[in-house]
Amino acid sequence: MSFTDGLTPVFLEALDVAGTDYAASLTAPPVVQIVATDDLGRDLSCSSDLTDLMLDVDEITALAQAVFRRITTPHGMVIDAPDYGRDLRELLSKGLTAAERDSSLTLFRAEILKDERIEECIMTATFVGDSGIVTMACKSSLGPFKFTCDVSAAEVLMSEVSF
Q1: Which of 17, 53, 130, 149 is deepest in the core (most CB within 10 A)?
Q2: Rounded to 5 degrees, what are φ and ψ at 103?
């Protein structure tokens, strides 16, 4: 096997797992070929926290999850990014009128558009009592996606994602 990308292997030990002393026999240890793929667009699944199995997702799903975190993290809660975040639960906890809630959606849309991968975002919201459903349709550099969040004073859940 050989490296096709010009990399030179570095041998840290002269013994392989079978115990052959390559330094004594003057033969080089076997070279393991490193195969690189162009699948660089994968990340760990993390809508609100890492999964128990540390599952990975494709790039557009990771982007949808990043948007979800951006609109469920209270403004100023990230120490090294004080201008990051806006929490959808704000729409419930402030006792806003329906008109104020609708105008507040522009703040959330602006927060989503801070991610340079997002080109356009349309948001709709329906609230009944102390809960609501917020739907976002985003156009991104990776393609379009849409997701729905169920919002209550206790939590925000990503209930549906489509690409």
Answers
A1: 149
A2: -70, -25
| Distance (Å) of CA 21 to CA 15, 27, 142 | 5, 9, 51
pLDDT per residue as tens digits for the range 37-77? 444 466 655 566 556 666 777 888 889 888 999 999 999 99
69 with 146, same domain: the answer is yes
Give the pTM.
0.67
Amino acid letter for position 23: A
Q: Is 98 found in the same domain as 19?
A: no
Tell me which amino acid residue 155 is.
E
Do residue 95 and residue 71 come from a single domain? yes
Q: Which structural domain range is residue 8 located in?
A: 1-36
Distance between CA atoms of residues 122 and 104, nearest Å: 13
